[in-house]
Structures are given as C-alpha cells and as structure tokens.
C-alpha cells in the first residue's frame, strides 16, 4: 500500500517505527510527517521516546521495524554517515564535543580540512567565522570547549551541523540550556534557516516555544504518538494535557516564606574560572533557612564558578563562605555534605551522574558511606535497593528499574534521579542549579512543589536558573548576577521581568531607580 | 532467564571465548603454512598441560601467581589506573617476605605465616603507593612512574641478595626462610610439588570480587575510575582513592611474590619474579578485569605455556604459544575498542 503513496511534499516521513530496548518499548509504531521547510515540534513526557525516534532518523540506532522516507524517497539509514549524506544534521540533547579540543577542531572533526599533507585549520576558521557571522552565532573559534559555558557549547553544536551542509536539522531540546535572550537569538536563526528552505525538527518541553516558532506538533506519550496538531489550532494547556494525560498546573502556588537564621553567608568571594580569569568578583550574598534565594543571570556570568565554590568543587581565591556559622571556605566537598549541604549540579552528566553505574548506585552517590547504606566496610545492598525502589516510585523515574545503567535513562529521568537523591538526603541547605532543565511539564510541576515544600520545612535554598519564569515563581528574593557581581536584590512581587532583564544586562539596581 | 544463563551469555564472556577460539584457528593456519599438523600440535599442547599428574601440578603452580598479578593489574584498571609496575611490586613484596621469613624461626606457624604474608603485601603496597602518591598529588602519570620503579626494584634486589642479605656460597640468593613460615605441600610427585599457596590465590579471587562488588571502598574506586568529576561531587576523594587503589593493586602483586617465597623456593632469589608482573597485564585484559575472568585467563595462559614443551617435542616451535597469546590479546583489546564504540553510540542513542 505504502508503495503507491507519494510523500514528496514531506522532507521527512517515518512510518510505523518500532524500537524495543530490554524491557522498554521506546517507540511503538510511531508515525512522523514533517513538511518541507517547516518547523515541526515533537513534544512529550520524559522517556516518551522522542530522542529514540530522532536517533533512528540520524542512524545512531536502527529501528526494529518501520520505514524512513527523505524527500519522498525511502532511505535506509545505517549510521550517521548515511544521515549526513542525506543532509540530515542533529544537535544532541547532550553535547557531543571533545572537551579538550578547540571550537574549530571540534567543528571540523571527522571532516578535517587538509592542504596537501597538512591540517588546514585556517580555512576552516574562516568558514566558521563566516557562518557564525551570518547566523549571529558568535563564538571564539579558538576557545577550548571545556572552558566554555554550556550555552556557548550549544552554539558550537549548531555551527557544526550547519558546517556539514545539513538541510534537515534535528534539534533535541536545544533551548534547555539557553537563556531567554539566547533562545530568541536561536529562533531568529531558525527562522532564517527556514526561509532558506531548511526543514527543522525541534524537540522541547517548553510549550510557549512550541507556540512561538513551530507550524505543527507531534505529541508523544509512552512511546506512541498521541496527537498531531497544527500549532495555530492548539494551546499550551491542550498540549500539556495531551502529553501528560491529565490537567497540569502551569504555575506554582505558594504561601509567603517564614525565613529563619542566616544559614549561608558568602563574603567578598573571588573565584577564577578554568583559564585563570576572575569569574566571581567580590560577590556577597546570604541565604536564610526557609527561604528560596534565586540568582538570575545570563549564562557565563559566574554562576557555575559560584556554585562550584560554595559546594567545594572549585578553589576560592579570596573571601569567605560561612555555613551554619562555620567558616567552610576550605572544607572538602565531603565535609560540606556531612554538614547538610545538598547540590543539584548544573551539568548532570559531568557531576551529577555516573553513567556506567546502575540507578541504585547513583542514588547513594555522596551517601554511600552513611551508616544507612554501609556498615563501614560492606555496602548494605539490600537496604540500598529498597531505598532506591522507594525513590524511583516517589519521583516517578521511568522505567522504574533500579538496575538500569544511568546512561540508559532518558535525559529528564536522569535529572529526576539526581534531584531525588539530593532531596532524599535531607539537607539543611540546597544549592540548586537548573533543577528542571530538560524536564517535562508534569515533572517540573512536581519538582517545583517539592522545592517549595522543602522551603516550608525550613531548608534554605539557593536557586540558580536561566529560566526567569522559574526564578520568579519560586524565589522569595531575587539576586541578579552580571560579570561575577550582584547587580541588585529585588522581591519578585515588587518587580518586573523587564527590570531583572536590564540588571542581567549589566545595569545596577540604583541606576534603574534613578532612571525611573 | 536464570542468572546462570545470563552470566554465560554475557557479552564480555562471549568476546573472550571468541578471541581464544579465533586465535587457535589463526595459529592452526600458521602451522599449516609451515607444514605442521595443527591437530597433532594441539593434542601435544593439551597432553603437555593436562596429560600427566606432574603436568597438572606444574600447570596449577604456574597459574597461582598469575592469578594474583592479574588481579593486581585488573584492580588498578577498575580505578582507571594502568599499573605496569606489578613486576617491581612482586620483587619488593618477595624480598620483604623473605627477610621477615628468616626472622620468625622461633614462632609457631600460625604467627609466622601471617607475619610473612603481611610483610609481603605491605612491601608491594608501599612500593605501588609511591606511584599512587605521585599520581594523586604531583600529577605524574602512573605508567611512567611504575615502569621506573620496576628498575629501581630490580636494582635494590640485586644489591641486597649480592650483599647484606646473601646466603653463604656466593650465589645471588637470600638465606632460606624459617620452616615455620613455609606453606606445606598438598602432594609431591618427584621434584614437582603442589603447594597450598594455590588456595591463597583462589581466596584472593573471592576477596577481590567482594571488594569490588560489595564494599564501600570498591564503590569509591569504581566511581573514581568511571567519572572522577562525579566522584568528587559525591565527596569521594580522588587522591585518596588513587593511592588506595594503587596500594591494593601493589599488595596483590606483593602477595604473588610472597607465595613464591613461602610456597615454591623457600627463599628469595634473583629470577623469582620472572615476567609475572607483565603477564598480569595480559591476564587482566583477557579476563576483562573481572576477578573470575582473571582466574580463568590465568589458567588458560598457564596451560598453553605448560603444554608448549610437549608441542615443541612434537615438532612445532614453542613460540607458537606466544603467537596464540598475542592474537588473543589483540582480539580482546580490539573488541574492547569495538565495544567502546558501541557503548558510545548507545550512550548517544540512549539519551541524547
Ligand atoms: N539503550 C537503552 N537501553 C534501555 N532503555 C533505553 C535505552 N535508550 C533509551 N531507553 C529507554 O527508552 C525510553 C525512551 O527514551 P528517550 O530517550 O527516547 O526519551 P525522551 O522522550 O527523549 O525523554 P526526555 O524528554 O527525558 O529526553 C526511556 O524509557 C529510556 O529509558
Ligand atoms: Mg530526550
């Protein structure tokens, strides 16, 4: 039957795609139709099978069943080389960059330009500069990846795909790591790509983005397609319901905070980033028990270094960190944990998770020598498994199989594992960085509720987030960070996102008042 | 599906078994090319390794220290460390064991045997910990430092058994250790004896398996080996665990040397260490860092070596064994490459 169907108006058609992993049906007869030069969204809960579907389009894994048509012609895509040949490019949910190499080196990797026997990096450098100028994706071609903030690394990934001449771009949660401004810039790029005839498949959990930039949407749930709609004929609420299968609260409800004593004090902190340049420049702040202090800021303004310094993962140049009235500036990460400091790290695959450990091992990272889980010599495997079974249920980690390796979980579920672990360990202070990055609306609702209820139990929370909305809806006080310094403190109910946005761009609070 | 079946069908095991099979086939082709009958050669090899009681005893006694050095290197690998210095650790461990062994004549065996064993393990552990310390706190790569320490160990041993710790008679060997420190034999046939040290090696497999799978130390060491950033985040000290893993690795190598002193020679002498430290690398690779796998790999390597004499008598050069061994390692190692690639792909696949 399929043989006679004409798919030539579609850039991508996937028919009846089925993919089974041990114990999980990740894609169950999935159909996807993407018209030429449209922006098509795929949305769905964590673990719904979005990434799996795209990995099959890009040849990273082979479908068990189903067919793929590119521009109306059936294609068998055995590996990414086949996909690149079919002009398909993919920007992955977790970046695929070599940390130690520079931007140019990463971009040309696999297609190294040569002149005779020599590596002709200069030519590539120029091409990259042209590309990045053309699309407004400014990056320094000679920066080393590991020294760059995630937002910048994202740009490198996009340039890399463009450099390979992709006509069909798959972007797997590209905005999860971007600031609102960066997202707008990205959207500009996507629009201009689209106007040049490129087709874009866009995975996201942010429904306002779906509304803003896409033409049509495919909704997935538990491995199946549960809806295909035109963007103009739907609403965020309807999409959320289709994804989760129930009514979702899109805003958080909370009562006013009852803060107690100051639990964390940061005084005149100076911290350097990897290249030895000061990233945190004499920053001071306090967090009291029972309040959420939000730090708003554009990525790369010292947030990473600040959190790493507070949690003991980075050396402090000068200044003091006082936790529970004790100077902990030079304490080990372990000591800080023992004193009750929890940490949800920004980069979940680098710090938060050991990919080759099963879930139940990941659940005790940091607590593995606690009497609950170890008698001093032996791990109490039975207790650990019991504890993990409970957490997996409580936090709805899917699939709920504690023997699964960390790397076999979907991105959102990896995040759930980390959040669950840090909350379960009963901290008195939580350093929380991008807690809902990559989570679906249902999970975000759950994490937000959990953070609020922790606050109400008297836990102090320092929240670093690139999502202004998240900062506004959770924080009791908002500090804005710019170039390693706090530009001002405001209360969410007494300010506007515009004011905070201006501070994020380097305007001091006092200046704003003067102008007003 | 039963646990048993899962274990047998494990990807790792399939890779190792396939590698062995292919290497035997390739070696057979080489034999055909030089005009020898591979069936005859393999029959002789098999007979040489298992055909007589002496052969079996000889085989087991060769297996015993290889298990220990294999475990030593394999444990290091688990922590992401490449301990090429097992040879030096074997020597220092054996020397120290022999030295303590000469001083415990007045003690009963239940004191002198543990004393000697502990001395040997501490010797190996300290020797390896030097490299561990240099790595953890000075950033010196363990491959370089352990190789250098191998030479230092050899020079120390040569000096000691030619001077201050030399048995009378001008031969470079130490005095004999006390009778109370020697492990008894299970049986002897002519000059070949099966010593109880084989049980030390078997026990070590169980202990190392336990450490890796069941203990907090094993958890930390693996965490550091897999993802040092996440380990540090979890409050696990990288420096401490690098040193600890090196020390445990060295203790196992030291124990290998000790068993030769207390169970085979009754003293230290120059060639005691042989190449068992380097063989440990081979064995850890073939056994894929799994304690049970290492036990089997040690037995395999020992068997083809023990049988090679008979093969030589049957007219096929003994060196064929080196070829077989080389091909196995090559295949296992390249399979690891293939697996790593697969793993990387899956990682992308999994949750990009
Ligand atoms: N290699 C694998 N082995 C076992 N299960 C896997 C593997 N890869 C993916 N899965 C499972 O397949 C399901 C779909 O995962 P997928 O990564 O496609 O989800 P997703 O929709 O991209 O979710 P998220 O929004 O969290 O990124 C999940 O349950 C996941 O655990
Ligand atoms: Mg995904």
3D architecture notes:
The complex is a heterodimer of chains A (about 525) and B (about 350). Chain A has helices at about 50-55, 80-85, 105-110, 120-135, 150-165, 180-195, 205-215, 235-245, 305-310, 335-340, 350, 360, 380-395, 410-425, 440-455, 470-475, 495-505, 510-515; strands at about 10-20, 25-35, 40-45, 65-70, 75, 90, 115, 120, 170, 200-205, 215-220, 225-230, 260-270, 280-290, 290-295, 320-325, 325, 340-345, 430-435, 460-465, 475-480, 485-490. Chain A is an alpha/beta fold and about 525 residues long. Chain A folds into three domains: about 10-245, Rossmann fold (3-Layer(aba) Sandwich); about 250-340 and about 425-515, 3-Layer(aba) Sandwich (Rossmann fold); about 350-425, no CATH class. In chain A, the strands form five sheets. A six-stranded mixed beta sheet of chain A has the order 6-9-10-3-11-12, sandwiched between helices. A six-stranded mixed beta sheet of chain A has the order 18-19-20-15-21-22, sandwiched between helices. Chain A has a four-stranded antiparallel beta sheet with strand order 2-1-4-5, with helices on one face. In chain A, strand 16 (about 320-325) and strand 17 form a beta hairpin. Chain A is globular. In chain B, strands 1-2 form a two-stranded antiparallel sheet. By secondary structure, chain B is an all-alpha fold. Chain B is globular. Chain B has a domain at about 65-275. The interface of A and B includes residues 364 and 381 of A.
